[in-house]
């Protein structure tokens, strides 16, 4: 049942992806775009974590992602998307206000043919950070992606993300930031070596 | 540009992809996605995802963690500049 509900998002998602590809291409950026229908266990998990959430109000069953050079390109692509046919339902600017995990990206929820579709715009360094989170989750069977896991690891990811953002915006990393990352990394590594977190 | 769908079956214990199926028909792909998920219901060691893109090379960039094949994870440092 969930699977057939999910498949309703296939066509609207396809059209949103075409729009996203066009926005990236028109901006003169390399088109690095993928789409996915949310995995059923992730849908069930999200409903369990947010008991008041209704399936029909979930905004990311259909989702797509573009990897872009930097935040300047992200903002330019965003402006192009806002001029497109899909109705903009919500913009979550995690560049201006990062999630407590350190996650940064720009998420735009649009409505297309009655369906909600989420567009994620990430910079290269944001993608590298997100990949590290996914790798750690897989290797240590954690759920850092949903901000669950050992405090030391979460703290490292947070300060590392802030450091990457500093590097991206200013072209440099301050000594204070580098020290923070080094200390947090030390604690996170020790915690990960202890294991037993499954 | 036609989109290709890749059905990825990822083994969390081995941290590597154990199967990749390619579909040019989106309907067929979503049906296979549902079937594969059903086949692995309650299997917490397997992750199944359907990703659509122009090529597998792009999927490696947008969903790269499925392709690291058990490589050791190094927590990166940042060097002051």
Ordered list of secondary-structure elements with their pairings:
The complex is a heterodimer of chains A (198) and B (81).
Chain A (H helix, E strand, L loop, with lengths): L1 H6 L2 H17 L6 E5 L2 H10 L12 E7 L2 H12 L4 E7 L12 E7 L2 E9 H17 L10 H20 L4 H20 L4
Parallel strand pairs in A: 2-5
Antiparallel strand pairs in A: 1-2, 3-4, 4-5
Chain B lengths: L3 E8 L4 E8 L2 H14 L6 E8 L2 H7 L19
Antiparallel strand pairs in B: 1-2, 1-3
Describe the 3D structure:
Chain A contains 7 helices and 5 strands. Chain A is an alpha+beta fold and 198 residues long. Chain A has a 5-stranded mixed β-sheet. In chain A, a hairpin with a 2-residue loop joins β4 (106-112) and β5. The model of chain A has no long low-confidence stretch (mean pLDDT 94). Helices cover 26% and strands 30% of the residues of chain B. Chain B has a 3-stranded antiparallel β-sheet with strand order 2-1-3. Classes of the chains: A alpha+beta (198), B alpha+beta (81).
Q: Tags for this entry?
A:
heterodimer, A: 198 residues, alpha+beta, five-stranded mixed β-sheet, 7 helices, 5 strands, globular, B: 81 residues, three-stranded antiparallel β-sheet, 30% strand, flat
Tell me the major beta sheet of chain B: 3 strands, antiparallel
* DSSP helix fraction of chain B: 25-40%
| Tally of strands of chain A | 5
**Cα-atom radius of gyration of chain A:** 18 Å
The overall pLDDT of chain A, averaged over residues, is 94
Sum this structure up briefly.
The complex is a heterodimer of chains A (198) and B (81). Chain A has 198 residues and is of the alpha+beta class. Chain A is built from 7 helices and 5 strands; from the N terminus they run H-H-E-H-E-H-E-E-E-H-H-H.
């Amino acid at each position: 049942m969930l699977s057939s509900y999910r498949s309703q998002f296939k066509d609207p998602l396809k059209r949103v992806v075409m729009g996203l590809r066009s926005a990236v291409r028109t901006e003169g950026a390399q088109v690095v775009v993928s789409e996915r229908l949310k995995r059923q266990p992730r849908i069930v998990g999200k409903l369990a974590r947010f008991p008041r959430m209704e399936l029909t109000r979930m905004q990311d069953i259909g989702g797509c992602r573009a990897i872009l050079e930097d935040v300047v390109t992200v903002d330019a692509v965003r402006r192009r998307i806002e001029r497109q046919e899909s109705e903009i339902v919500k913009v979550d600017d995690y560049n201006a206000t990062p999630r407590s995990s350190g996650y940064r990206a720009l998420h735009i929820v649009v409505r297309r043919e009655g369906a909600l579709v989420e567009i994620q715009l990430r910079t290269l360094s944001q993608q590298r950070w997100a990949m590290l989170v996914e790798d750690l989750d897989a290797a240590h069977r954690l759920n850092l992606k949903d901000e669950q896991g050992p405090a030391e690891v979460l703290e490292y990811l947070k300060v590392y993300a802030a450091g990457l953002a500093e590097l991206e915006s200013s072209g440099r990393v301050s000594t204070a930031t580098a020290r923070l990352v080094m200390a947090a990394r030390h604690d996170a590594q020790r915690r990960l070596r202890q294991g037993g977190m499954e | 540009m036609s989109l290709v769908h890749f059905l990825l079956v990822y083994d969390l214990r081995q941290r590597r992809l154990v199967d990749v199926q390619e579909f040019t028909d989106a309907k067929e792909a979503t049906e296979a996605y549902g079937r594969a998920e059903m086949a692995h219901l309650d299997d917490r060691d397997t992750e199944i995802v359907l990703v659509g893109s122009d090529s597998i090379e792009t999927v490696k960039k947008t969903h790269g963690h499925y392709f690291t094949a058990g490589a050791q994870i190094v927590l990166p440092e940042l060097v002051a500049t």
